[in-house]
Amino acid sequence: EEVKAEKEPKLEARTNGRRDDKAEKPRFMFNIADGGFTELHTLWQNEERAAISSGKLNEIWHRRHDYWLLAGIVLHGYARWTDIQNDGAFGVINEPFKGEASKGNFLEMKNKFLARRFKEQLRRAAYLNMTQDPSHPAMALNTRFAEVECLAESHQHLSKESLAGNKPANAVLHKVLNQLEELLSDMKADVTRLPATLSRIPPIAARLQMSERSILSRLA
Q: Are residues 114 and 193 in the same domain?
């Protein structure tokens, strides 16, 4: 299931006429079935067959797209669908939706598909009814970040109005800035507690209630 994202290193001519291997960049790769979470193998086989027979490897969603979707989540964070879609490195996940781009609810449809597909990746976790603890510092940090983002985006017009001499807008702007400062202070405290909390998280095998042997046999 591992995919190598980087091409083989090129050979470069040296000043003495000899050629030498260029230093190879670290390759980005991970197993999309790691930890026994993913149980989409049958679906992947059907999608792969359809993609190959039609010659539309990019247009039909299959495990290649799942790989880059999960890679985007690793880089940008959970549910940051728009950030992932706008990142050129993960452009392949936009290909299956190009035929629907003219529809009015195109973005909503695409984000719902990505969210549903990601949940399908976690079939094993869903089967065990595993959910994130809302009191966990990582979850609190995520919630506060969403609040900061929402507050900033919904009040971004206030700065222009305040500069234009609008006194009510200026008063609201100061209140918003105070709220942002408090949220950022809380986030700083969450970040401070995070390393100790993460170090106490049990391994994947324990959380899935599976031994390493059973995980390997499932992946095989």
A: no
Q: How far is CA 6 from CA 26, 45, 72, 75, 89, in A?
A: 8, 25, 16, 16, 11
129: left (phi over 0), alpha (psi -120 to 50) or beta: left
Sign of CA dihedral 189, 190, 195, 200: positive
H helix or E strand, kind and range, residue 13: strand 11-13
Give yes or no: residues 148 and 211 share one domain.
yes
142 token code pair:
């995520």
154, 151, 158: which is closest to 180 by C-alpha? 151
State which residues form the domain around 64: 39-128
User: pLDDT for 60-114, tens place per residue?
Assistant: 888 888 888 888 888 888 778 888 989 999 989 898 888 777 777 777 888 888 8
In a domain, 94, yes or no: yes
**Structural domains counted in the chain:** 2
